[in-house]
Amino acid sequence: MSFANADRAPYSAIVDRPKFTLPNGARIAVWVVPNVEHYEFLPGPTRVRDPWPRSPHPDILSYGIRDYGNRIGLWRMMEVMDAHDVRGTLSLSMANFAMYPDIMEACEARRWDVMSHGMYNSRYHWGYSEEEERAAIAECMDLHQALLGRPLTGWFSPAASWTLNTPDLIAEAGITYYCDWYHDDQPFPMRTRSGKPLITIPYTMDVNDAIVLHRQQFEAADFERMMIRAFDVLYREGETQPRVLCLALHPFVMGQPHRIRHLERALAHITKHEGVWMATGQEIADWYIREHLAPMKTHLGWKAGA
Asked: I want to staple 297 with a disulfide (CB 3.0 to 4.6 A). Which of 150, 233, 267, 302 is the partner?
């Protein structure tokens, strides 16, 4: 069985859905997603685009900016998140943990969640055959298991370079939550050919520092206002139908010394409210699959096993 993209997650207006609930009656689940990436200094051939804008390689400027995130920015962000008792969900280039065990140990000590962001953020999956993509997914899952001793449960394709086969392949591999789609303010079930549960969890390209600050060149104060305003609207709406807010961050962007105070202020604003579930991706997915997957399938008219 195969699905057109429109059939993967059929339309459902949020005002018509069964009531979505969160633990302890929370109005909103907030998950903070540091994209802890690794870019190859000299990437191999790519099929769609060059990962470095400045050629010929090596692009020392672009590589160095991103390397700053692993050396400095992540540790600065950890201090801020620790101060507000916020656990992160890493969008992780899996090679990062193998190459930088200090980062792995620090994240494990904080009980941060991990979803795979591919092996390297300079190896795109666009144009992969089904066999090539299956092998790339397996490589990430095997490394995660070897390093952390537990299965990988979340997936966000490197540089959002997914294919039409990605949902089927990750579900078949045992992954339960997925972030290549940015289509909702709640988790949502996705149809796959195996029928195995796969949940999209709201990720964002709007409240995303790499887009807003690095690409669109807004100021960090603008991004602080965006984080707070997004939270305030979803928190208000969550009184009747709870929502999920993602803060998508990159240590080489938000971990800069002139920007970090704006993350601190946004987290202070969010965590002072009652009825906020500061969650990880796996916690959100597990809750949804256990409490809401069956009634949502009924609402969508899916047959058993779909």
From this structure: 302
pTM of this prediction? Answer: 0.94
Angle, CA 282 vertex, CA 278 and CA 283 arms, to 5°: 45
Q: What is the pLDDT of residues 168-207, one digit of tens each?
A: 999 999 999 999 999 999 999 999 999 898 999 999 999 9
Q: What dihedral do alpha carbons 150, 28, 260, 84 form, nearest 10°?
A: -70
* DSSP per residue, 196-220: ---EE----SSSBHIIIIIIS---H
Q: Under 8 Å CB-to-CB from 299, ≥6 apart: which residues?
A: 12, 17, 18
Question: Which CATH number fits the domain that encloses residue 189?
Answer: 3.20.20.370
Total number of domains in the chain: 1
Any idea which residue has 């887009």 for tokens? 211
- Hey, what's the torsion of the CAs at 263, 159, 217, 257, to 10 degrees? 40
Whether residue 1 is contained in a domain is answered as no
